[in-house]
Design brief:
By secondary structure, this protein is mostly beta strands. Helix content is 13%, strand content 40%. The protein has helices at 32-42, 134-138, 144-147; strands at residues 13-15, 24-29, 46-59, 64-78, 85-100, 124-127, 131-133. A hairpin with a 4-residue loop joins strand 3 (46-59) and strand 4 (64-78). The termini are far apart.
């Protein structure tokens, strides 16, 4: 029996082996169908732009991956008071850290079972498999798009 796991609405898989400590630049933009699906999931009236550019790099000998990027979005939400459409422009920088959970990291060195994290790396997401999804890193279900307040001022 197999269970089909749905792909995220905005998926841009990147092989972990393509990353190194110098990093790899990326620029991604959601198409109309992807924006519509993300808007539905987040309860937005519309999502007219969703783009991210940044850099993905390995750290800690390939055991950690860091995504540093800028997210740009044009959203329309319902006002929580009047239910009128409220447009908003989002332009934010974000950082997401991942801990590679595979048996052998990309650098080929055997895992020691211990990873030391600096204070700014406490929030890490597990990453299984051999790809990182840069689209999913952009829209994980929380964050800048889903947390902007839909309230009309005045």
């Amino acid at each position: 029996m197999t269970t089909d796991v749905p792909l995220p609405e905005f998926s841009r898989p990147t092989p972990v082996e393509a990353l190194d400590s110098a990093g790899r630049s990326f620029a991604i933009e959601a198409n109309a169908d992807e924006r519509s699906a993300v808007a539905r999931r987040l309860g937005l009236v519309s999502l007219d732009l969703l783009s991210t550019n940044g850099r993905a790099s390995t750290r800690a000998g390939g055991r950690n991956i860091r995504v540093e990027a800028r997210l740009r979005a044009e959203v329309v939400q319902e006002c929580v008071v009047t239910l009128e459409p409220v447009p908003a422009s989002i332009d934010v920088e974000f950082v997401r850290d991942y801990l590679l959970m595979s048996a052998e990291p990309p650098d080929g060195k055997a895992a020691t079972g211990e990873v030391t994290l600096a204070g700014d790396e406490i929030d890490v997401d597990p990453l299984t498999g051999d790809t990182i999804d840069l689209g999913r890193a952009t829209v994980p279900g929380t964050g800048p798009i889903s947390s902007c307040a839909g309230r009309r001022l005045g």
